[in-house]
Amino acid sequence: MSALTSLGMGEIAAAIKAKKASASEVVEAHLSRISSKDVSIGAFLARADDAARGEAKEIDARIAKGEDPGVLAGVPIAIKDVIHVKGFPTTCGSKILNRFATPYDATVIRRLRSAGAIVLGKLNMDEFAMGSSNENSAFGPVKNPWDLTRVPGGSSGGSAAAVSAGFAAMTLGSDTGGSIRQPAAFCGVVGLKPTYGRVSRYGLVAFASSLDQIGPLTRSCADAALSLSVIAGQDVHDATSSPRPVDDYAAALHAPTKGLRVGVPRDFLKTGVEPGVMAEFDKTISALKADGAEIVDVALPNAPHAIATYYLVATAEASSNLARFDGVRYGLRTDSATARATLKDMYGETRDAGFGPEVKRRIVLGTFVLSSGYYDAYYLRAQKVRTLIRRDFETAFASCDVIATPTTPSPAFKLGEKTANPLEMYLADVFTVPANLAGVPGISVPCGLSNGLPVGVQFVGPVFEEATLLRAGRAVERLMGMSAAPTGI
Amino acid sequence: MAEIQDKLLTHIATLARLSLSTEETTSLAHDLAEILKYAASLETIDLAGVPPMSHATEGERFRPDEPTHDLTREQALQNAPDQDSGLFRVPQVIGG
């Protein structure tokens, strides 16, 4: 990685403002790296090199005039292709949206651009953010920069791989059941899912509206803090965005470990975690303890039910949200072979042709659990269990500040390893899904390697306690000294 | 637990506006049966008096319902597969 493509976001902005490097040089260094390395990774679905060069020139011109272009002046970023960025298509990794021209910027993009960030492109993902390996993309899989025979995780696989490979200083992902944190763990980067309502969802194509959140993937907790400080806050276009003031996340990075109460739900970790992952997790907890953290036993008795709950709740919401892809207002339309085809025929044929297998699986499951005769037994029951899962967190947070688990039960698995068994794929999210159901924030931070593959530790906190998560995450960075440089490219 | 047979799956696919092939129907029926078997663990939980949770928010905050002009008509129609005179055009609505 050349110097410019390994710098942190704050370092890049500072160097550009101090005229030690120009925004144009920074953008060129990243475009050059993408051109030479993304052939083997497959992270980008769309690029706009000339537009990025133009924006970099503008930043440089403003600095030459003595203006301050913002805290992210000239910082190159890239965006999961489920978030609207004007001037780019939005495909959601799906054939059904393959010709969609995006008419407006999502609120997060507007804020990042106002702060001086430069969007380099749109990133590959599992179709409609449904998947844990990026293998559900209609445009091909993404490879893990640590090992090209392995998945980068999903659904924000392109976002995690791009940051890991040095293609961008920060990427945005979306997290409905772990889609930021799980790929961050697999690719050895930091992934932050904010509290539900902390970041506006305006301009994010909806998967499961009560669970979705946008968040940053970065190479450090400092960059995650800086990113969140820019994108967080109330937005008139998202009625669920919170009016609470945005905390000083950068300040939290300097808070000492001493006095931090770290809850560990040992019962929840008893099954299914690979020994190599568990060893790195235990080392991390020991290091935090030695640094002054108080380690507390906590229980999350209903967390083992989270995956089942999630797949009933999230698919129900998805089946409703994805009804809009009907061949009328945007995207694919399949013209029927029969001359007397009706609107209903067009709907069915367009959707069958446009959606991939996992999306159809979830639409069908979601439609089933919402259908007459099954609603109470499945959807309503799952919503009640969701209440219990949230209560577990509330009880646990009475005795701790954050809850620590491995982010994933295993490191990155092989391409094709889990595609034949949907349920096995779903279980890759066992530790990340509970936070979405409860609406609480979570962060994954690299904490070690198992057989040469990154392992992530996850911290989950009470609502709007992102600062505490960043404090714990920074402590792990400092104590575990995990290098973010991937070995596969 | 209901057994997801092909017939039920065909009904669900109709509700979901998906024209599935026979192979897809059989394959999805199998997958759904597996997933619902897994989800049966929720039946063991005592949920008496537990309210359902549909939102993770503190409550929604609504803005005044006033029209804005964020998109022009042309922008709203620019992605339409078929349009006519500023309107979305669709196949015949009533079956023949």
Compile the SSE list and pairings.
The complex is a heterodimer of chains A (489) and B (96).
Chain A: H1 9-17, H2 23-41, E1 44-47, H3 49-64, E2 76-80, H4 107-114, E3 118-123, H5 157-164, E4 170-175, H6 181-187, E5 190-193, E6 213-218, H7 221-231, H8 249-252, E7 261-264, H9 275-290, E8 294-297, H10 306-321, H11 343-354, H12 357-370, H13 376-396, E9 402-406, H14 422-426, H15 433-438, E10 442-450, E11 453-460, H16 466-480
Parallel strand pairs in A: 2-3, 2-4, 7-8, 7-9
Antiparallel strand pairs in A: 1-3, 4-6, 5-6, 5-10, 9-11, 10-11
Helix pairs in contact in A: 2-3, 5-6, 7-16, 10-12, 10-13
Chain B: H1 6-15, H2 22-39, H3 73-77, E1 83-84, E2 87-88
Antiparallel strand pairs in B: 1-2
Would you give an account of this structure?
The complex is a heterodimer of chains A (489) and B (96). Chain A has 489 residues and is α/β, with parallel strands linked by helices. Chain A contains 16 helices and eleven strands. Chain A has a single domain, classed as Alpha-Beta Complex (Amidase signature (AS) enzymes), CATH 3.90.1300.10. Chain A has an eleven-stranded mixed beta sheet, with helices on both faces. In chain A, helix 2 packs antiparallel against helix 3 and helix 7 runs antiparallel to helix 16. Chain B is mainly alpha-helical and 96 residues long. Chain B has a domain at 19-44. Chain B is built from three helices and two strands, in the order αααββ. In chain B, helix 1 crosses helix 2. Chain B is flat, with a radius of gyration of 22 Å.
Summed up:
The complex is a heterodimer of chains A (489) and B (96). Chain A is an alpha/beta fold.
Major sheet summary line of chain B: 2 strands, antiparallel
Shape of chain A: globular
Summed up, the domain count of chain A is 1
Quantity of strands of chain A, as a count = 11
Largest sheet of chain A: 11 strands, mixed
> What percent of residues of chain A are in strands?
5-15%
Instruction: Indicate the CATH architecture of chain A.
Output: Alpha-Beta Complex
- In helices, the fraction of residues of chain B equals 25-40%
Strand order of the largest sheet of chain A: 1-3-2-4-6-5-10-11-9-7-8
What is the element string of chain B, with H for helices and E for strands?
Answer: HHHEE
Q: Identify low-pLDDT runs of chain A.
A: none
N-to-C span of chain A:
10 Å
